[in-house]
Amino acid sequence: MSGSSTSSGASGGQGRRGWGRDGLVVARALLPHPGLWLVALAALWRLARRGWWRRPPFLPVPGDAYWRFRLVTANGGDGVSEPLRPADVMAYLRWCQRSRPQGG
Question: Whole-model pTM?
């Protein structure tokens, strides 16, 4: 199983883990919680790759390698086989909300 750095992000391939599938999990978890929308935008901004406006998909999302690294450090494993869970998204965003400096 060495050298499996394929880019089969479509239809459940075992290769590279893309942001698209996880983006849907984040959106579904976040939609019913408008109080966390600004927190999520701030977190997304912090995770966005440098120069995101110069490369497709022209959105401030994390790069694939960094996103996989974050998943490995959060969940262990290889960062590909374990799906992102809505509960993990909400726990992270609530942690971000509690960790923000209060006041101006």
Answer: 0.71
SS (H, E, C) the chain: CCCCCCCCCCCCCCCCCCHHHHHHHHHHHHCCCHHHHHHHHHHHHHHCCCCHHHCCCCCCCCCHHHHHHHHHHHHCCCCCCCCCCHHHHHHHHHHHHHHCCCCC
Q: How far is CA 41 from CA 21, 26, 47, 59, in A?
A: 18, 11, 10, 12
- Residue 21: Cβ-neighbour burial (10 angstroms; 0-12, 13-18, 19+): middle
Q: Domain map of the chain by residue range? A: 19-99
Contacts of 42 (CB under 8 A, 6+ apart): 96, 100
pLDDT single digits (tens) 50-84: 999 998 888 888 888 888 888 888 888 787 778 88
